[in-house]
């Protein structure tokens, strides 16, 4: 029985070594290694792109949103004051377009009103 056991271990080790030395297994290991390398590079570049997009958003878009909110609050305040004083409202506040045309129009109207008061 001992001889049979050693011969079966020999067969298993030969089959195992034959399979592990197979060109198919080598190519599979190589493909897995290459895929891991590509995935690592992709994650690094994606992280860099996300960082750039996030910081750009914070620097450019957030101040614009804050300024638009302040302008909307100022318009509401002006309308409330006008209604309390009994004067007709100059205009109903409108949402700003993506190009900020309404914002510029409101600024120009305010400047004209200030010059008329002086």
TrEMBL record:
It is found in: Mitochondrion outer membrane. Residues 8-17 have a biased composition (Low complexity). GO terms for cellular component: mitochondrial outer membrane. One of its GO terms (biological process) is intracellular protein transport. The chain crosses the membrane at residues 49-66. InterPro entries: Tom22, Tom22_pln. It comes from the Eukaryota. It is a single-pass membrane protein. Residues 1-20, 96-118 are annotated as: Disordered. CDD domains: TOM22 (cd22884). Coiled coil: none annotated. Keywords: Membrane, Mitochondrion, Mitochondrion outer membrane, Protein transport, Receptor, Translocation, Transmembrane, Transmembrane helix, Transport. Its main location: mitochondrion. Belongs to the Tom22 family. PANTHER family: MITOCHONDRIAL IMPORT RECEPTOR SUBUNIT TOM9-2. This is Mitochondrial outer membrane translocase complex, subunit Tom22, plant. It comes from Cynara cardunculus var. scolymus. The lineage of its organism: Eukaryota, Viridiplantae, Streptophyta, Embryophyta, Tracheophyta.
């Amino acid at each position: 029985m001992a001889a049979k056991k050693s011969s079966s271990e020999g067969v298993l080790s030969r089959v195992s070594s034959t399979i592990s030395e197979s060109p198919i297994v080598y190519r599979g290991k190589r493909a897995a290694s290459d895929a891991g390398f590509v995935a690592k590079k992709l994650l690094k570049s994606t992280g860099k792109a996300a960082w750039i997009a996030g910081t750009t958003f914070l620097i450019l878009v957030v101040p614009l949103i804050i300024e638009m909110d302040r302008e909307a609050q100022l318009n509401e305040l002006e309308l409330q004051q006008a209604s309390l004083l009994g004067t007709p409202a100059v205009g109903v506040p409108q949402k700003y377009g993506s190009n900020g045309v309404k914002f510029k129009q409101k600024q120009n109207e305010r400047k004209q009103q200030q010059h008329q008061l002086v």
